[in-house]
Amino acid sequence: MPNLVVDFDTLLTMSGKDLGTTDYREITQQQINLFADATDDQQWIHTDPERAKDGPFGAPIAHGFLTLSLIIPFWGELFDVEGVTTKVNYGLDKVRFTSPVKVGSKVRMQGSIAEVTEVKGGAQIKVNATIEIEGQERPAVVAEFLARFYK
To answer: Rounded to whole angstroms, what are the CA distances from 151 to 8, 76, 114, 125?
Structure first.
């Protein structure tokens, strides 16, 4: 269940709203391997734990796009709009992979609604999303995520 559920009219007033932080999720080697299989990205820094021990990060790391893709389940923990007919992940404006996520790390997302714009038949929101790594000052991902909600 999301931390915050609002109706469409309330959504229109939410520019600047802090949505809080999700629970942590652990990044596992199995997750990394499945993502590698799905994307044909078998680079050894992700999929070869023995070789990665001697690599630049001292352990296998998650693909940046794997970490980015966690915005979707994290988003479901933070926020929802009721009374709409369609909800669409509309895209991303900016994305930066600012720190590697080592296997076994725990990550969570902090989000805030930066902007709400009316569009034909609905509204678009821009969410400032930061995926944090437990115990580290520097986040893994900083992104501007766009979502649309249609009445």
So the answer is: 8, 19, 21, 14
